[in-house]
Structure formats: C-alpha cells, structure tokens
Amino acid sequence: MVKKQLIMERALELFAQQGIDATSVQQITDHCGISKGAFYLAYKSKDELILAMIDHFMMQFTSDLDYVVKNTNNDQLLYEFYYTIYSTFQKHSDFAKILIKEQSQSLNNDLFLKIQYYDSLMGKSILLMLERLYGEEITPIKFDLFFCIRGFMNTYSHLFLFFNLPLDLEILSKSLVEKTNLLARHSTIPFISEEVIQLVKHPKSEEVSKEQLVEMVVQKIDEIEEPIEKESLILLKEQLVNQTYSPAIIKGLLENIKDHPQCKWISYLLRNYFDF
User: Fold this and answer.
1) Rounded-to-integer distance, Cα 221 and Cα 254, Å
2) Kindly report the CA angle at 262 between 228 and 62, in degrees rounded to 5?
3) What is the distance of C-alpha 123 from the center of its chain?
4) Ramachandran assignment for 246, one of left (phi > 0), alpha (psi -120 to 50 degrees), beta (any other)
5) How is the chain split into domains, by residue range?
6) Any idea what the Cα angle at residue 73 is, between residues 70 and 79, rounded to 5°?
7) Rg for the chain, CA atoms, rounded
C-alpha cells in the first residue's frame, strides 16, 4: 500500500474514534507503524493530511460522477447519477460527519476553496447531463432545474449525516428520477437566468496543461504496482506526448484505470483532456 494512502486510512480510524483535534501526529504514526519523519515526508502537517483526505474522497466522487454522466445510456442516466451520489456519500459519510463536527479554524479557508473547486466541477457534470437528457426543450428552465437537482443532493444527504436510518438507495434514486422528470416536463415559470448564473459562478478553475498531465501520469506510474493499470498509464503517457493511438484504444486504456482507487483523478483529467 502506498504510504500516503496508509496514513490516510489509519488516521481516519483514529479521527472516528477520538476526533480530529484530539488526535496527534504521534498517535497517527504509532497507529501506522511509521516514524514521524516518514509522516512529514508525506504531509507537512495534520491539516495538510486532512485536506489531502478531502481531495482523495472528492476526486473519486467527481471522477465517478463524470464517468456516469458521459457513459450511461439516457434511459438510465438520471438513476445512475443519483445512485452514484448517494452510494458514494453513504460510503464516506463517517468522514463527512467528523469534518462537520469539528472543523479546525486553520482549515476553514482552504476547505472553502476546495469545496468551491469541486462544486464547480460537479456543476459542469450536472449541466452536461441536462443537455444530454432534455436538450433544448428545457432551455428556459435549465438553470432552475440545475438548482433543484443541487437542492435534492444537499437535502437528502442530511439523512446520511444526521439520522442513523436504513436507507434504500434504489428507491431513493427512483424517487428523485421521478421528481426531476416532473420538474423538467412541467415547469413553466423560470426564475434563474443565465445572467444570475454568471453572478454566482465560481472563479474558473485553472486548466491542467499537457505538461502537468504528463508529470502526474509519470508520478502515478511510479506509485502503483498493478501491471494492467501501470502499462495503461505508460501508453496514455505516450499518447500525451506523441498522439499515436486511435480513439478506441485510448478509450480502452482509460477504462483500464478508471476503477483503480489511486487512478480516479488522473482518469478524470485524462478523460476530459482526450474529450471522452
């Protein structure tokens, strides 16, 4: 297991048991069976570790959602969209509860910026989904529907955070599909205009350059051990540099890495770079 991944997993166990503030770096290193020096080679501080954990979960979530939106048939797209959201949220709800319960003041600004960044990426996926599903027929109410979907996501996520309930994700997803379709087909009074969207739009995130992507792929090649994923990354790096493979081969290589937990983010970035 990669050392950074090990530290994140062991730290999360301690955070769940005794809270973030009550957990020291020494306790984390003892729980991992590593030295403090090894910890500080991976993370400069406990705050940086927490932000890395947020990145880890949000990168997986963003990548999975992007893949669903771009690769699911229209008749199943809404269902898979909602199911992916809530299954991922359910899986990582313990960490979300910990963050809500005790956010360190030193983290607030960095945490806010990260939330804004991933929120903007998620917004792009939702708008793409609406365009795929409904096309121009919902143009007048597109942004109202966008905010309704965001509202569904936020409101129903409270069931995972604040209530210890057995939830049937299949029924929840089907219920939200029905509600979304009703709004799309029967809403007639738009409120949110494109001008309003521009006013509340997050600052545009900086695009990742080809050179940065190559560096990230090289780093990932060094980190992972699985032969299929490693070879796929090597070939994708070659495609970034030389552009020698056909779209079908590129798509297959991206499929090979998309489910590897350490490749979620790089697969997301490469999918967007190659326009898949």
Assistant:
1) 14
2) 115
3) 12
4) beta
5) 1-43, 45-200, 210-274
6) 90
7) 20
Alpha carbon distance 68, 56 (integer Å): 19
pLDDT per residue rounded down to tens, the chain (276 residues): 458 888 988 998 888 888 888 889 999 999 999 998 989 999 999 888 988 888 888 888 899 999 999 999 999 999 999 999 999 888 877 777 776 665 554 556 777 778 888 888 999 999 999 999 999 999 999 999 999 999 999 899 888 777 777 889 999 999 999 999 999 999 999 898 777 777 666 555 557 888 999 999 999 999 888 999 999 999 999 999 998 899 999 999 999 999 888 888 999 999 989 988
- CA 108, chain centre distance (Å): 19
- Residue 140 neighbours by CB distance under 10 Å: 13
Contact yes or no for 20/96 (Cβ under 8 A): no
The CATH T-level fold of domain 1-43 is: Arc Repressor Mutant, subunit A (1.10.10)
Measured CA to CA, the distance from residue 74 to residue 65 in angstroms comes to 14
Q: Spell out the CATH class of 45-200.
A: mainly alpha
User: Which residue shows structure tokens 């009703």?
Assistant: 182
| Spatial distance between the Cα atoms of 86 and 170, rounded to a whole number of angstroms | 10
